[in-house]
Design goal:
By secondary structure, the chain is α+β, with helices and mostly antiparallel strands. Helices cover 24% and strands 23% of the residues. Strand 7 (144-145) and strand 8 (151-153) form a beta hairpin. The longest helix is centred in the N-terminal third of the chain and has 21 residues, at 15-35.
Length: 411
């Protein structure tokens, strides 16, 4: 597999120009695949994997520790908490973490736990959002904290004589805001997150998306009785479009045709729509402008789908997949965003309507039904059985290789 080094960012005046260049380069490769008889990007060969990577309890605990407690994870986008006092909760891994924007516009993370007796400080409303506040007040005994986590007031403080209240500030959790994306490490600690180092050569590919302007529209949670990796596998290939999604995406996109770019453990994959066929045999100077689109994977668990309702009017869908308490339980936090019009900077109702609840879409439900049924089969697979990822399932292979490397286990 060839690792892509991106483009020379010194030559682009702005992100819009860079996106146009990358979009055209991807389009050129798509047209070549269709012209060659619907070929696709290939890996060096098929890859077999043991069903235990999905079903084994020890493996699941190792992944939680090495991937989900040590690596930066996507918690949301900047406009999920845009103003001082805005906050969001990160609770998908069991421990409740509060991310709040301070008066200095900085985002900080804390255990969502009062340092008096551990009560939860902030609860999400029914729509998943948290109300804006100027202080964090415990609903149990009204201990009061500033937005920077320092203890501000204790009712009946005379009852705590001899207690060093300077040691009763909120417990910090590492949080970083980069490129419009909010990252968190799901473990207590005051250390800093180096997001450019984590993303490496993938950073410019994400930075060009200008996600700081992404406006949240809809958020929901999907749970399923399958392994989180099997669910994520379904986002990694278009080999199944014509069969599983015959009445939906299979009617608009080619099956088993993809353009793949690896950036370390992260990657981007594009699936060509059938309209690409109209460009075969046409000189590139006659091609219409195309919007930048793509499925982006931030290791270890986040899929960011960028698309356009119509030229210049974009949307983003984010799928954050998490392991459950057992290997056969998982959850997926789905959030839809719209991007401002590239010409006017405005957000339009058409994009809002399009960016609906994808957790309940036909495509998502079909994918997860297969993931549940296949997981049940793998738990009872005969001795010696291996799953196999074809050369055409290149992103899927990259995903599993990166997991093995990160947790220190041979594939």
């Amino acid at each position: 597999m060839v690792e892509k080094k991106g483009v020379d960012d010194s030559v682009w005046a702005d992100h819009v120009e860079r996106r146009r260049h990358v979009a055209r380069a991807i389009q050129r490769r798509m047209v070549a695949h269709i012209a060659a008889g619907r070929t696709t990007d290939f890996s060096s060969g098929p890859l077999e994997n043991d069903p235990a990577v999905y079903t084994d309890h020890a493996r699941a605990e190792l992944e939680k520790r090495e991937l989900f407690c040590k690596l930066p994870l996507v918690a949301g986008f900047s406009r999920d908490a845009p103003r001082a006092g805005d906050s969001l909760l990160f609770e998908e891994l069991g421990q409740s973490i509060l991310i709040v924007r301070g008066e200095d516009d900085m985002l900080r993370g804390f255990l969502n736990m009062c340092t008096h007796r551990g009560a939860k400080l902030v609860r999400a409303s029914s729509d998943g959002n948290c109300e804006r506040r100027t202080r964090l007040t415990c609903p149990f005994h009204a201990w009061n904290f500033n937005l920077d986590g320092t203890l501000a007031a204790v009712p009946g403080q005379q009852g705590f004589e001899g207690v060093d209240m300077c040691q009763r500030n909120l417990v910090p959790v590492p949080v970083a805001e980069w490129g419009g994306i909010i990252f968190v490490r799901a473990a207590a600690g005051a250390d800093m997150l180096d997001i450019p180092a984590h993303l490496g050569v993938f950073a410019p590919e994400l930075e060009q998306l200008e996600l700081a302007g992404a406006l949240p529209v809809k958020s929901s949670m999907l749970t399923a009785d399958t392994n989180w990796k099997f669910a994520l596998d379904t986002y990694c290939e278009g080999y199944h479009f014509a069969t599983l999604h015959a009445s939906t995406i299979g009617t608009t996109h080619y099956s088993n045709v993809a353009v793949f770019d690896a950036f370390g453990p992260h990657w981007r994959i594009n699936f060509p729509g059938k309209s690409v066929a109209s460009l075969v045999g046409v000189h590139e100077t006659e091609w219409p402008e195309c919007d930048y689109e793509g499925v982006h994977f931030i290791f270890p668990n986040t899929i960011i789908v960028v698309g356009a309702v119509e030229p210049g009017k974009g949307f983003v869908r984010v799928f954050r997949l998490f392991p459950g308490r057992t290997p056969g339980k998982m959850s997926c936090h789905v959030t839809a965003y719209i991007l401002p019009d590239t010409q006017t900077g405005e957000y339009r109702a058409a994009e809002v309507e399009f960016a609906g609840d994808d957790s309940d879409s036909v495509v998502t439900q079909e994918d997860y039904r297969v993931a549940v049924e296949a997981y049940a089969n793998l738990t009872n697979a005969p001795a010696g059985f291996k799953v196999v990822y074809g050369r055409n399932e290149i992103a899927l292979q990259a995903f599993h290789r990166s997991i093995c490397e990160a947790i220190g286990v041979p594939l």
